[in-house]
Amino acid sequence: QLVAYEVKRMRAEEGNKQKILRHIKELAEKLYKNENPYPAVTMHKVQKPTEGCHLRLHQKPFPRLDEGMVQWIIDQATAKLQTAPPAVKAEKKCMVPSGPPIAAIMERNGNALANSARRLEVVRNCISYVFENKMLEAKKLFPAVLRAMKGRAARHCLTQELNLHVQQNRAVLDHQQFDFIIRMMNCCLQDCTAMDEHGIAAALLPLVTAFCRKLSPGITQFAYSCVQEHV
């Protein structure tokens, strides 16, 4: 029904927070009523006798129950139950028109998808420049790459690209390349959430033990020594 009837209204409300909130409230009420069609039944509570009440001297004896009266009350309640409406709400079937084509709703998301693709392209290009030793080009793209790391797709892209370079036996870096790669990895891990622990962070583990630089003959520094402080 939202897709069929409310698209125009939602578009008209864009930018007006009060109208959007009111609309959300209306929806919430509808959903709540749908899940809770009947108000809660109030239960009659019978009070417990107080402590030590049985020790009182002037205690009234419990009255003898009239069997006929009890049966009459039970019969009354049974009759009421039989005439009561069924507990389950009968479903009203109705035809909902298909509404506007999905493309009309998707066009607003098109820009976001294009932006995402551009970010991934920037990450790929920057890594390529680093490994091709085009440091000036890499420096220009670097701030955009660090911003892109806020998105999971860009973080995933970083792990994939670095993995390709490891497979090409390009894991031994010079000092400048090492610095760039370490900064990217640190930024990537910094923006990781608990959800990324078994995805992005796990994908980086073999990479941080592969990328390295020669500090002097016989001494090699691996990437993990620079990124191991992350949770």
UniProtKB/TrEMBL annotation:
The gene is Sbf1_2. Residues 99-231 form the SBF1/SBF2 domain. It comes from Caloenas nicobarica. The lineage of its organism: Eukaryota, Metazoa, Chordata, Craniata, Vertebrata. This is MTMR5 protein.
